Amino acid sequence: MPFAVYVLGLAVFAQGTSEFMLSGLLSGIAADLDVSLSAAGLLTSVFAVGMVVGAPLMALSSRTWPRRRALFLFLAVFVAVHVVGALTPSYGVLLATRFVGALANAGFWAVALTTAVAMVPDRLKGRAAAVVVGGVTIACVVGVPGGAVLGERWGWRSAFWAVAVVSLPAVLAVLRSIPGGRGTDTGSAPVPVRDELRALTGPRLRPVLLTMALVQGATFCTFSYLEPLLTRETGLGAGWVPVSLALFGAGSFAGVTVAGRFADARPVAVVATGMAALTLGWAALALTAGHPVLALVLIPLLGLLAFGTGTALITRVLGLAPGAPTLAGAFSTTAFNLGATVGPWAGGLVLDGGLGYRAPVWVSALLMVLALLVAATTAKGHRPRAGERRPSAVHRSARGRL
Fold this sequence. Notes:
79% of the residues lie in helices and 0% in strands. The protein has 16 helices and no strands. The protein is globular, with a radius of gyration of 20 Å.
């Protein structure tokens, strides 16, 4: 695996830490800037919105740039807005930096995914995507708890400084190790935007992107409300919450690693098996949430299944969209973050409706049922097109399930 792929994973680690660390910093931000907790919570929402709209917009705006330049500029902007955020006394300025930071993060994600898979042979594309996505899972295990500790000891601004400092080695490494070519690094003219959009909005890729959004929606629906589930339904003390989050993150890292090993050889089988297991897993957690041992066993297992399946779906999109070298990564990023936006919203609706702390977990199970229905309904009639690599016997046997 080229060193440059690991550089991209390091940068994504810093960005993933920034995306999720606010969950442990909101009270400090609200008190310091004299705003309400709900206003502080908007800092998370605006980041999610920036990620959803930013991926295709940033990918389009940078599609004619050399990849090295695009990655460097996105990462440099990301570092700069964290420095501004750490210094500003203004809530409005901080809110603006979160949105701009999300745009830069989304642009980096979109370019990083396509860059990583372009630097390796076909048999390693899934593993390359897994290294990039793995940065997010390591952020969940190390970065987010670390940011919470920094915020508790030295204030929330120290966490922003830490993200900027951790990003600096990646900025330098991008300049030294990433190929400088554009598009497919062949020096050829970029694929016309209309052709890329046609490839991505065709009948084969639309259901895969929708499936990805539903799977991520299910994941973040429960993940966002794991704390009240554990403390008010399972009966665990508050001290178990960071332990549980770390368990989920460790499972996620394992899932990304496993998917990277097998998604290239058996993409459909990995996705189909993971989705079916996730549906059963969320239902099992909803049924057994009152039993601490069972809940703690299921949490890392669900992290493994959720991020393993998500990584395999990203690999699937990139493999099915060779005609969209610029926007395939952007659409994958948008689908991922659309799920991360809609899932918590759906979980909040059922909680506000008084349906109990297990309700978001049932919503996760329902979203997975919808994902299975989308996959099963649309994959049935697929036939290989001219020039498409024919699937192996394992793929053909699994296709009926996806």
